[in-house]
Amino acid sequence: MRLALPDHWVWDSWMTDDGTDYHLFFLRASRALQDRERRHYRATIGHATSPDGEAWTLTADALAPSDAPAFDDLATWTGSVVRGADGLWNMFYTGVSRAENGLKQRIGRATSTDLLSWTKDPDLVLEADGRWYELLGDGTWPDEAWRDPYVFEHAGQWHMLITARACVGDPEGRAVVGHATSADLSHWRIEPPLSTPAGFGEMEVLQAHTVNAKPILLFSCAPKNTSLHAGHDAGTWIAEGQSLLGPWTVTDATNVDTADLYAVQMRRTRNSNWMTWGFDNTDGPQFGTITSSRYSPHTDTESPTPAT
Known about the structure:
The protein is an all-beta fold and 308 residues long. The protein has a single domain (2-292), classed as Tachylectin-2, Chain A. Helix content is 0%, strand content 44%. The chain has strands at residues 2-3, 8-17, 22-30, 44-50, 57-58, 75-83, 89-96, 105-112, 119-126, 146-154, 157-165, 175-182, 188-191, 204-211, 214-220, 236-240, 254-256, 261-268, 274-280, 290-292. The strands form 5 sheets. The chain has a 4-stranded antiparallel β-sheet, with no helix packed on it. A 4-stranded antiparallel β-sheet has the order 2-3-4-5, with no helix packed on it. The chain has a 4-stranded antiparallel β-sheet with strand order 6-7-8-9, with no helix packed on it. Strand 12 (175-182) and strand 13 form a beta hairpin.
């Protein structure tokens, strides 16, 4: 698997399968910006399709920032796609706005009948609840973490795992698994976090899977934000748990060798093998390309329902 655009950087990505094609959604920004750190506030959500998960055909972008004023009028960031009982595809994604200079993150939804044309839902915007989660005004982190929604169905209910930070604990290690629940994908309830602070500054692009009959939590954290888990160069982490909703032993999370890739994702293919991938996060010319990860879980595993 490889996706490289000559005129754009591509980074965080997520995937779904319509039964005929795999659909890869990813963040992209023009290389004309020159400084790759500027890409975050220029991000749109790109889209490519593939019949086999290997060779990809670029299509029109799925989402772009809204006209101001809106929660996503600056940039659109990482999310996930699921199909509801009514057959409608739902993309949950992160938005940042000009009003807060991109520092406050919120979660929105867009829907589609064909995965190609998307309509944003103006009535669904989820924000962090200050009873449990750190807010921008708390001042212990550069921004308010409330992003990367990963949605899946479990035990008859929809669940959303969210990159978030607790409102208590050592500021260097407040990352937690944010949580929201829904019966219908349209109405959501913000819940307390599914984990407690465990020494990570951020836990990004969260996913839950069952591997070898053991529930795991997959997440990313850059080495610079793992000061309480020093000595690791890779940004991919796995914590074992008691169920797909935890609790997980995040304190004892394992650092996984995914070479120079970041925001690594996993999903089962149609032949029950695992596909793992991420984006090249090195300082060289390959930065900003999506490629397969060499991490390969065993094939006798199961995933929750999100990947359809």
